[in-house]
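Format notes (please read before filing issues)

Several people have asked whether sequences and structure tokens are stored in separate files. They are not. Every record keeps both together, in the order shown below: the sequence lines, then the token lines. Line labels are part of the format and must not be stripped during preprocessing.
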Amino acid sequence: MAARSLEIGPAGIRAARNIEILRTERGLPQRELAARVTALGRPMPNTMLSRIERAQRRCDIDDLVAIAQALHVPVPALLRGPATA
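Then the structure lines:
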């Protein structure tokens, strides 16, 4: 059986960028967002969040949902691409 690729695809990269943008727009340090995610029942050290934002770690769907809740946005907001005119 061939090993499954761990490469982060375009949707994962978009989500990583959107998480960072939304977090910084809200003035949240990574440590605070990670604490909010952890308080929602999804343990997340700030180093994990940092790696997710830098697209160095895959973000599973449960992490994505908890991050969206912690940022008070719907999950699709983390997956959207750049706005087009």
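For reference, the curators noted about this record: The chain has a mean pLDDT of 91. Helices lie at 10-25, 30-39, 46-53, 61-71, 75-79.
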